[in-house]
Hints:
The chain is α+β, with helices and mostly antiparallel strands. It has helices spanning 3-11, 50-57, 91-104, 109-112, and strands spanning 14-21, 24-31, 33-34, 40-46, 60-66, 78-88, 117-131, 135-140. It has a single domain (1-140), classed as Roll (Pnp Oxidase, Chain A).
Amino acid sequence: MLAKLESLLRDNSLCVLCTEAAGNPYCSLMTYLPSDDLGTLYLVSTRESRKFKNLLANPRVSVLVDSRQHQGQGANIVSVTFAGLFTPLTDAKVLPIKTTFAEKHPELAEILNHPDSLVFAIKLTSYLLLDGPVAAEQGEL
């Protein structure tokens, strides 16, 4: 994977998850954990959320990650837009991921402890990497 893409995924933890159902787009600001190979993002939500209902209706998503989380105003922004597929997780995978979320993101305690919460995966399939407003690179994952 490209070095800038890897750095962007490892150095940040916020993304915008874009879902769709019945022709209506929906965007959610989310905290993510990347898999070790960076091919999957793990996210947490509730079963009754609009985003999760949208994922069940249409597993195809778009995910935006950018460098604004750690850069000052006026800095060159690097961003990547991924295409991806929603993937439910087995119970065996959920507990270790929830534990890692709790350790790295204590601010998510309320949703992680919610009785309706769930962890799910987005398998990344392609990317469009922008370095500033013009320079672009795209590819399959």
